Amino acid sequence: SKVALLFWVRIQLEDYIAASIIPSVQDFSRSWRTGLAFCLLIHRHNPLLIPDILSRTDSQDKAVWLELLTLAFDLASSHMGISNYLEPADLIDVDHPHEPSVMMYVSEYYKVMSSAQKNESPTARQEK
Q1: Which ranges carry the Calponin-homology (CH) domain (predicted)?
Q2: Helix, strand, coil shares of the chain as percentages rounded to 5?
């Protein structure tokens, strides 16, 4: 469900939100336009894939959005096996991205990340 997936996203990003790297994710539309939320989910999954993302800030520059969305979609595809359901233009070129499409794409992150987290030992999670 939408509420459960949004709750999962907020838990995954809570450290980044607490550190003021990103505002709290409020929806599956405008909250994802900049690409930063996708990048931070990837960083949460595997910090080595995107080590410099913590130095980035939420920008209003659409060129930065394009860069971050392209990076996130490419990494999700090549390292997490997540199909590219979305293109950066789907998020950048509209005021309100199509919520069901973003939800479907984020649910793929959930599947990959929750499966990986279940396979980790509690000790390995604490060491991160």
Answers
A1: 1-114
A2: 70, 0, 30
